[in-house]
Design goal:
Layout lengths: L15 E3 L2 E3 L1 H17 L5 E5 L5 H9 L4 E3 L5 H10 L29 E5 L7 H14 L5 E6 L9 H13 L8 H10 L2 E9 L3 E8 L3
Parallel strand pairs: 3-4, 3-5, 5-6
Antiparallel strand pairs: 1-2, 6-8, 7-8
Helix pairs in contact: 1-2
Bound molecules: S-adenosylmethionine.
Length: 218
Amino acid sequence: MSEPSSDTPAAMESRTWSERRLHSPSAGRNKAAIAHELARILPADAAVLEIGSGTGEHAVAACQAREDIIWHPSDPDAQSRASQDAWSTECPGRIQASRALDVSLADWPAGLPETDAIVCCNVIHISPWRVAEGLAKGAENLLSPGAPLVLYGPFLEGEKTAPSNLEFDASLKSRNPEWGVRARDDVETLLARHGFDLEQVIGMPANNLMLVFRKTAR
Ligand SMILES: C[S@@+](CC[C@H](N)C(=O)[O-])C[C@H]1O[C@@H](n2cnc3c(N)ncnc32)[C@H](O)[C@@H]1O
Protein backbone atom coordinates (compact mmCIF):
# COMPACT_ATOMS: atom_id res chain seq x y z
CA MET A 1 0.00 0.00 0.00
CA SER A 2 1.35 3.45 -0.84
CA GLU A 3 1.91 6.11 1.78
CA PRO A 4 -1.22 8.16 2.48
CA SER A 5 -1.12 11.89 1.78
CA SER A 6 -0.05 14.10 4.65
CA ASP A 7 -3.60 15.49 4.88
CA THR A 8 -5.28 14.05 7.96
CA PRO A 9 -8.81 12.93 7.02
CA ALA A 10 -11.32 15.28 8.62
CA ALA A 11 -12.82 12.80 11.10
CA MET A 12 -9.52 11.34 12.27
CA GLU A 13 -7.02 12.09 14.95
CA SER A 14 -3.44 12.92 13.84
CA ARG A 15 -1.72 9.73 12.66
CA THR A 16 1.63 8.49 11.40
CA TRP A 17 2.20 5.47 9.17
CA SER A 18 4.59 2.51 9.35
CA GLU A 19 4.09 -0.31 6.84
CA ARG A 20 0.29 -0.74 6.95
CA ARG A 21 0.07 0.14 10.64
CA LEU A 22 -1.13 3.60 11.53
CA HIS A 23 -0.05 5.12 14.83
CA SER A 24 -2.04 7.77 16.62
CA PRO A 25 -0.15 9.80 19.23
CA SER A 26 -3.37 10.22 21.22
CA ALA A 27 -4.07 6.45 21.18
CA GLY A 28 -0.44 5.95 22.21
CA ARG A 29 -1.03 8.16 25.25
CA ASN A 30 -4.41 6.79 26.35
CA LYS A 31 -4.43 3.13 25.33
CA ALA A 32 -2.88 1.79 28.56
CA ALA A 33 -5.35 3.63 30.79
CA ILE A 34 -8.29 2.53 28.63
CA ALA A 35 -7.11 -1.09 28.53
CA HIS A 36 -6.60 -1.07 32.30
CA GLU A 37 -10.23 -0.08 32.92
CA LEU A 38 -11.63 -2.36 30.21
CA ALA A 39 -9.77 -5.29 31.76
CA ARG A 40 -11.91 -4.85 34.88
CA ILE A 41 -15.18 -4.18 33.10
CA LEU A 42 -15.40 -6.72 30.27
CA PRO A 43 -17.13 -10.04 30.99
CA ALA A 44 -15.10 -13.27 31.02
CA ASP A 45 -14.38 -14.68 27.54
CA ALA A 46 -16.22 -11.73 26.02
CA ALA A 47 -16.68 -11.18 22.29
CA VAL A 48 -16.11 -7.41 22.17
CA LEU A 49 -17.26 -5.23 19.28
CA GLU A 50 -15.35 -1.97 18.92
CA ILE A 51 -16.98 0.84 16.96
CA GLY A 52 -14.69 3.32 15.17
CA SER A 53 -11.50 1.41 16.00
CA GLY A 54 -9.25 3.94 14.27
CA THR A 55 -5.65 2.76 14.01
CA GLY A 56 -6.38 -0.52 15.87
CA GLU A 57 -4.03 0.19 18.76
CA HIS A 58 -6.76 0.01 21.41
CA ALA A 59 -7.65 -3.51 20.27
CA VAL A 60 -4.08 -4.68 20.84
CA ALA A 61 -3.77 -3.03 24.26
CA ALA A 62 -7.11 -4.44 25.43
CA CYS A 63 -6.33 -7.96 24.21
CA GLN A 64 -2.90 -7.85 25.83
CA ALA A 65 -4.53 -6.79 29.11
CA ARG A 66 -7.16 -9.55 28.93
CA GLU A 67 -6.06 -12.78 27.29
CA ASP A 68 -9.51 -14.39 27.38
CA ILE A 69 -11.36 -11.90 25.17
CA ILE A 70 -11.92 -11.86 21.39
CA TRP A 71 -11.97 -8.42 19.76
CA HIS A 72 -13.99 -7.42 16.70
CA PRO A 73 -12.68 -4.09 15.40
CA SER A 74 -14.65 -2.00 12.89
CA ASP A 75 -14.54 1.29 11.05
CA PRO A 76 -16.21 2.86 8.03
CA ASP A 77 -12.78 4.01 6.82
CA ALA A 78 -10.87 1.51 4.65
CA GLN A 79 -7.39 2.78 5.54
CA SER A 80 -8.23 2.45 9.25
CA ARG A 81 -9.50 -1.09 8.69
CA ALA A 82 -6.27 -2.01 6.91
CA SER A 83 -4.31 -0.66 9.88
CA GLN A 84 -6.49 -2.58 12.36
CA ASP A 85 -5.85 -5.78 10.41
CA ALA A 86 -2.12 -5.06 10.35
CA TRP A 87 -2.02 -4.47 14.14
CA SER A 88 -4.09 -7.62 14.75
CA THR A 89 -1.02 -9.82 14.20
CA GLU A 90 0.19 -8.67 17.64
CA CYS A 91 -2.52 -10.92 19.16
CA PRO A 92 -2.81 -13.89 16.81
CA GLY A 93 -6.31 -15.32 16.54
CA ARG A 94 -7.75 -12.88 19.06
CA ILE A 95 -8.40 -9.79 16.92
CA GLN A 96 -10.79 -10.63 14.10
CA ALA A 97 -10.80 -9.09 10.61
CA SER A 98 -12.08 -5.53 10.77
CA ARG A 99 -15.64 -4.90 9.62
CA ALA A 100 -16.91 -1.91 7.64
CA LEU A 101 -19.47 -0.63 10.13
CA ASP A 102 -21.02 2.83 9.96
CA VAL A 103 -23.33 3.10 12.95
CA SER A 104 -25.28 5.98 11.42
CA LEU A 105 -26.75 3.47 8.95
CA ALA A 106 -29.96 1.61 9.76
CA ASP A 107 -29.54 -2.05 10.64
CA TRP A 108 -25.76 -1.82 11.12
CA PRO A 109 -25.82 -4.79 13.54
CA ALA A 110 -27.36 -7.10 10.89
CA GLY A 111 -25.26 -10.22 10.43
CA LEU A 112 -22.89 -9.57 13.32
CA PRO A 113 -21.90 -12.52 15.51
CA GLU A 114 -23.03 -12.73 19.13
CA THR A 115 -21.58 -9.75 20.99
CA ASP A 116 -21.02 -9.56 24.75
CA ALA A 117 -19.84 -5.94 24.97
CA ILE A 118 -19.48 -2.82 22.83
CA VAL A 119 -16.61 -0.33 23.20
CA CYS A 120 -16.55 3.03 21.42
CA CYS A 121 -13.72 5.51 22.03
CA ASN A 122 -13.52 9.07 20.70
CA VAL A 123 -16.22 8.73 18.05
CA ILE A 124 -19.42 10.51 19.06
CA HIS A 125 -17.90 14.00 19.38
CA ILE A 126 -16.16 13.85 16.01
CA SER A 127 -19.22 12.82 14.06
CA PRO A 128 -22.82 14.10 13.79
CA TRP A 129 -25.25 13.38 16.65
CA ARG A 130 -27.03 10.84 14.44
CA VAL A 131 -23.96 8.61 14.93
CA ALA A 132 -24.56 8.55 18.70
CA GLU A 133 -28.25 7.86 17.98
CA GLY A 134 -27.40 5.02 15.60
CA LEU A 135 -24.93 3.55 18.07
CA ALA A 136 -27.55 3.56 20.84
CA LYS A 137 -30.27 2.04 18.65
CA GLY A 138 -28.02 -0.68 17.25
CA ALA A 139 -26.55 -1.50 20.65
CA GLU A 140 -30.07 -1.95 22.01
CA ASN A 141 -30.75 -4.52 19.29
CA LEU A 142 -27.39 -6.27 19.50
CA LEU A 143 -26.67 -6.63 23.20
CA SER A 144 -28.37 -8.93 25.69
CA PRO A 145 -29.54 -7.75 29.12
CA GLY A 146 -26.58 -7.20 31.44
CA ALA A 147 -24.07 -6.54 28.64
CA PRO A 148 -21.88 -3.41 28.90
CA LEU A 149 -21.62 -0.54 26.43
CA VAL A 150 -18.49 1.51 27.16
CA LEU A 151 -17.98 5.04 25.83
CA TYR A 152 -14.68 6.91 26.21
CA GLY A 153 -13.91 10.51 25.35
CA PRO A 154 -14.46 14.11 26.43
CA PHE A 155 -17.90 15.20 27.68
CA LEU A 156 -19.52 18.47 28.70
CA GLU A 157 -20.61 18.46 32.34
CA GLY A 158 -22.14 21.91 32.87
CA GLU A 159 -20.08 24.11 35.17
CA LYS A 160 -17.72 21.23 35.91
CA THR A 161 -16.59 21.09 32.27
CA ALA A 162 -12.84 21.39 31.91
CA PRO A 163 -11.77 24.52 29.96
CA SER A 164 -9.76 22.30 27.60
CA ASN A 165 -12.96 20.45 26.67
CA LEU A 166 -14.79 23.73 26.00
CA GLU A 167 -11.94 24.78 23.71
CA PHE A 168 -12.00 21.39 22.00
CA ASP A 169 -15.77 21.71 21.52
CA ALA A 170 -15.35 25.12 19.84
CA SER A 171 -12.59 23.81 17.60
CA LEU A 172 -14.64 20.77 16.54
CA LYS A 173 -17.65 22.98 15.74
CA SER A 174 -15.47 25.32 13.69
CA ARG A 175 -14.39 22.32 11.60
CA ASN A 176 -17.90 20.92 11.26
CA PRO A 177 -21.00 22.45 12.89
CA GLU A 178 -22.47 18.93 13.32
CA TRP A 179 -19.56 17.85 15.52
CA GLY A 180 -18.98 18.80 19.14
CA VAL A 181 -18.14 17.47 22.57
CA ARG A 182 -21.39 15.90 23.76
CA ALA A 183 -23.16 16.76 26.99
CA ARG A 184 -23.01 13.82 29.36
CA ASP A 185 -26.69 14.39 30.21
CA ASP A 186 -27.71 14.12 26.54
CA VAL A 187 -25.75 10.89 26.10
CA GLU A 188 -27.23 9.39 29.25
CA THR A 189 -30.76 10.40 28.20
CA LEU A 190 -30.25 8.92 24.73
CA LEU A 191 -28.96 5.63 26.11
CA ALA A 192 -31.69 5.42 28.74
CA ARG A 193 -34.24 5.68 25.91
CA HIS A 194 -32.57 2.62 24.38
CA GLY A 195 -32.57 0.55 27.55
CA PHE A 196 -29.15 1.32 29.07
CA ASP A 197 -28.47 2.32 32.68
CA LEU A 198 -25.35 4.29 33.55
CA GLU A 199 -23.35 2.08 35.90
CA GLN A 200 -20.01 3.87 36.30
CA VAL A 201 -18.34 7.16 35.46
CA ILE A 202 -14.57 6.79 35.48
CA GLY A 203 -12.33 9.86 35.41
CA MET A 204 -9.55 9.34 32.87
CA PRO A 205 -6.37 11.33 32.07
CA ALA A 206 -6.61 14.61 30.16
CA ASN A 207 -10.19 15.35 31.28
CA ASN A 208 -11.70 12.37 29.51
CA LEU A 209 -14.32 10.05 30.96
CA MET A 210 -15.17 6.42 30.56
CA LEU A 211 -18.95 5.94 30.81
CA VAL A 212 -20.00 2.37 31.48
CA PHE A 213 -23.62 1.62 30.56
CA ARG A 214 -25.35 -1.68 31.06
CA LYS A 215 -28.29 -3.03 29.10
CA THR A 216 -31.22 -3.40 31.41
CA ALA A 217 -33.29 -6.54 31.63
CA ARG A 218 -36.66 -5.53 30.12
C1 LIG B 1 -11.04 10.27 16.38
S1 LIG B 1 -11.06 8.68 15.64
C2 LIG B 1 -10.93 7.61 17.08
C3 LIG B 1 -10.28 6.30 16.77
C4 LIG B 1 -10.06 5.37 17.98
N1 LIG B 1 -11.32 4.89 18.51
C5 LIG B 1 -9.26 6.06 19.06
O1 LIG B 1 -9.82 6.42 20.10
O2 LIG B 1 -8.06 6.25 18.84
C6 LIG B 1 -12.76 8.50 15.19
C7 LIG B 1 -13.05 7.20 14.44
O3 LIG B 1 -14.47 7.09 14.29
C8 LIG B 1 -14.75 6.56 13.02
N2 LIG B 1 -16.11 6.94 12.65
C9 LIG B 1 -16.53 8.13 12.16
N3 LIG B 1 -17.83 8.06 11.86
C10 LIG B 1 -18.26 6.83 12.19
C11 LIG B 1 -19.51 6.15 12.08
N4 LIG B 1 -20.58 6.76 11.55
N5 LIG B 1 -19.60 4.86 12.51
C12 LIG B 1 -18.51 4.24 13.02
N6 LIG B 1 -17.29 4.83 13.12
C13 LIG B 1 -17.17 6.11 12.70
C14 LIG B 1 -13.67 7.19 12.14
O4 LIG B 1 -13.51 6.50 10.91
C15 LIG B 1 -12.46 7.14 13.05
O5 LIG B 1 -11.72 5.95 12.89
